[in-house]
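Let us practice reading a record.
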Amino acid sequence: MSEPVIVDAKGLSCPQPVLVTQKTIAQMEGGCVEVHVDTVTSRENVARFARKKGWKVVKEDYGDWQKIILTK
């Protein structure tokens, strides 16, 4: 398996984390993307968007920030 694509969306206000994620996955047919966010709202919005696009979502909490792992 190849290395995941990292999207660092920490510090961005909604809807920017979703837009950055959208741009990234639009260029991919599948694979693994790690989206790093620092708010619950961003985490939930990115996860909801990714699921609608057919990606599997796993969320991991690291206290000050969260990692959303998207696979397809």
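A brief commentary: The mean pLDDT is 95.
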